[in-house]
Amino acid sequence: MALVRQRPPKGGNASEIEKKIKRGNALRQGSSWRGSRGLVALLLVVVCLCGVAAWLYVISLDSDIAEVLASQRELVSPQPRVFAVQCSEDYDNHKRYPGCTPQKCGRAVTDSVVTREEAQVLRRLAERGLALAGSEGGASILDLHSGALSMGKQFVNIYRYFGEQIGDVFTPEDFQLYRSIRERIQAIIAETFGLDPVLMYLTKPTFFSRINSTTAKTQHDEYWHPHIDKVTYGSFDYTSLLYLSDYGSDFTGGRFVFMDQNGNRTVEPRAGRVSFFSSGSENLHRVEKVTWGTRYAITVSFTCDPAHAISDPALH
Fold it and tell me: What secondary structure, in 3-state letters, does 232-290 show?
């Protein structure tokens, strides 16, 4: 059987086939590039959307803040930064004490009353005391005056519960510093509001607080609700807070917010910072939920009514 030899394509046909092959390869490469480019574009869109969502979330955290009265980064010294507000009628429902009952109301911030080193000493005191127990939720308190300490879902008296062991936790020097700082806070409040410090009295509750992001277990853990100190505690006339940790580095959230009719105003905690204000409804306030870390502070409250006075704490 004779073999039939196939003839190679003529030159023109070969050239045409090569062109088609090259065109096909180019189309495939182009299609591949377009697919890759589409995937890259999709990824960029996703990244941008995530960035926008994160930005919107951060903005939403501050959306209700009209003004920052004192940021953590700045040093308010030597004079307090004072913001006057009109007194409410709350004080009309209580007996007035000349020389003490608020005649002018407001809020103020200072970083010159307590040093950061002193704040660190008090923070260590609070850490030692709260390490004895603590709340199951996100807010624990230690009241050196009454001895109240959060333990699980209830409170115990540290002086009775731990007895002489308390002497291994606290020292006379701790209580001496505590008293010195209380006196300085009392003096700056009196000077700022034009009061006679002798007519002001420490009152309860005055306590250390430790707040973190743990889910609340009882109503005592729900520290973030708006409230008025004069309504919650009838004896309060002046409230102060001494911060023992720094907003932004020790914790996030947890800012103190004054809720005014024309906008909310905040004080950012700074170790050693003292924020103080008249306790009536002119200073409706709340604390933001702590979202990360641990916030330490001391609430030191004063009354004009000697019947509600308490003494400085002492080792029993």
Answer: HCCCCCEEEEEECCCECCCEECCCEEEEECCEEEEECCCCCCEEEEECCHHHCEEECCC
Strand partners, 67: 265
Of 123, 182, 273, 295, catalytic: 295
List, in sequence order, every residue forming a beta bridge with 85; answer none if it has no partner: 105
The answer on pLDDT for 158 being more than 60 is: yes
Question: What residue spans of the chain are helical by DSSP H?
Answer: 11-62, 116-130, 158-161, 172-193, 229-232
The residues facing 285 across adjacent strands are 227, 258
Express each pLDDT in 14-59 by its tens digit. Answer: 565 555 555 655 555 555 545 555 554 555 554 455 444 443 443 3
Q: How confident is the model at residue 93 (pLDDT cuts 50, 70, 90)?
A: confident
Residue 209 CA to residue 207 CA, distance in Å, equals 6
- Residues contacting residue 161 through CB under 8 Å, at least 6 positions apart: 149
Cβ partners under 8 Å of residue 207, min gap 6:
141, 142, 143, 144, 145, 148, 298, 299
Closest by CA position to 189, among listed 234, 237, 146, 226: 237
Whole-prediction pTM value? 0.80
Is residue 257 within 8 Å of 265, Cβ to Cβ? yes
Contacts of residue 216, defined as CB under 8 A and 6 or more positions apart, other chains included, come to 137, 138, 139, 222
Q: Is 295 a catalytic residue?
A: yes
pLDDT tens for 237-257 read 999 999 999 999 999 999 999
